[in-house]
Amino acid sequence: MRFDLIVAGGGVVGASLVRALRGLSIALIDARSSDLAAAAPDGAGWDARVYALSPGNVGFLRELKVWQAIPPERLTPVYGMQVHGDRPASAIGFDAYRAGVPELAWIVEDRALQSALWQTLWSQDGCTGFPAARGVQLEFDATAGVRLELQDGRSLESSLIVGADGAHSFVREAAGIAVTARQYGQTAVVANFRCERAHGNIARQWFQGGPVLALLPLPGERVSMVWSLPDVDAGRVQGLDPMALAREVELASAGALGALEVLTPPQSFALRRFTASRLVQPNLALVGDAAHVVHPLAGQGLNLGLQDVRVLAETLLGRESVRGLGDLRLLRRYERARAEDILLTGATMHGLHALFGAPASGWASLRNMGLNFSDRLPVLKNLLLRHALR
């Protein structure tokens, strides 16, 4: 079977790319089952994994007619952010009104976003889905371009394959692209809570001398927790009974939202940073977690991936008629356009983790003074916001 391109990975990043490339014949390969579009969240259940999407990426999803397919009652605008250091009175705040924007971010559940994407894809002309499918062999050929053999024996050909298949990317590994990786020795624990006090559509974060706790607003009197902890502590926290977990989060958040009640069992995932040595080669491009993974302390992982998609789609759709989709010179335009942002975001997240994880008192004074100093400089705050709002 011949296609214009193959997208490996039907998560948010891969599915968004397929949606952005309407008009091309695309094979979408995903190891999960075919019922993703029907997996919309019900009225009672809440997904423990949520994303804080930038206004720029929300605008992109609107253009794709995806954002409109998410039930409005599952979306939460963020009007303010409060970031607290590990010493009293050390903090920096951001406010949408003062920044002159409607909101700083939107919180959306993973399951709601995935469902909306797949609903739009099923009716997209030129998109052929291959659910519950895995690639077992990837070959590059001067004539065919790319040949991908699936586990069930089917063979697909195209001019370009895009690896959107996550941190353990089959496409990246099959192409022999190396990664530079670093383990943080931390695990993120996620869960949802009902809160006694109104969250006011404010995202809150506490640096704790290594651990980082974030409480993100959800619809109604609910918040989503992301707590990055040393591996041993994460195992202990995840094993707490619901009441004990709620009490520990109340204490860690200084009672900012009053009494908490666990709504979803805690889940966890290990944290690490890595970057692929290159994003492209002839007939191949990497996007999202297949290309880079950053620490989640600022919620930039999916935002980076969607920015990859925006640039790659613009590059492919704007190509000269004499260039094929797999032309290396074309794909390098995408790589060059993304290099600075990926490097800057990864280095910033890593630097913040290192700075706020340093136990020495001198570093503690410096980082907390830095938060207060930044909070008093509107120019610096606006620079930080402009980067986050893209």
Share of helix, binned: 25-40%
Number of helices: 11
Structural class: alpha+beta
SS elements, strand count: 21
Oligomer kind: single chain
- Second rung of CATH, namely the architecture of the largest domain: 3-Layer(bba) Sandwich
Binned strand content: 25-35%
- Uncertain stretches: 373-377
Could you give the distance between the termini?
38 Å
Provide a descriptive summary of the structure in words.
This protein has 390 residues and is an alpha+beta fold. It folds into two domains: 5-41 and 111-180 and 273-353, 3-Layer(bba) Sandwich (FAD/NAD(P)-binding domain); 63-110 and 184-271, D-Amino Acid Oxidase, subunit A, domain 2 (D-Amino Acid Oxidase, Chain A, domain 2), CATH 3.30.9. 34% of the residues lie in helices and 29% in strands. It has helices at residues 12-20, 55-63, 96-99, 110-122, 170-174, 231-238, 242-252, 301-317, 328-357, 361-375, 378-388; strands at residues 5-8, 26-29, 50-53, 76-78, 80-84, 91-95, 105-109, 127-130, 135-141, 145-150, 155-158, 160-163, 179-195, 202-207, 212-218, 222-230, 260-262, 267-276, 280-281, 284-286, 292-293. Strands 5, 6, 13, 14, 15, 16, 17, 18 and 21 form a nine-stranded mixed β-sheet that branches. The chain has a six-stranded mixed β-sheet with strand order 8-2-1-12-20-19. The protein has a three-stranded antiparallel β-sheet with strand order 3-7-4. Helix 1 (12-20) packs parallel to helix 8. The chain is elongated. 45% of the residues are buried.
Any key phrases for this structure?
alpha+beta; 29% strand; single chain; 9-stranded mixed sheet; D-Amino Acid Oxidase, Chain A, domain 2; 390 residues; FAD/NAD(P)-binding domain; 2 domains; 6-stranded mixed sheet; 11 helices
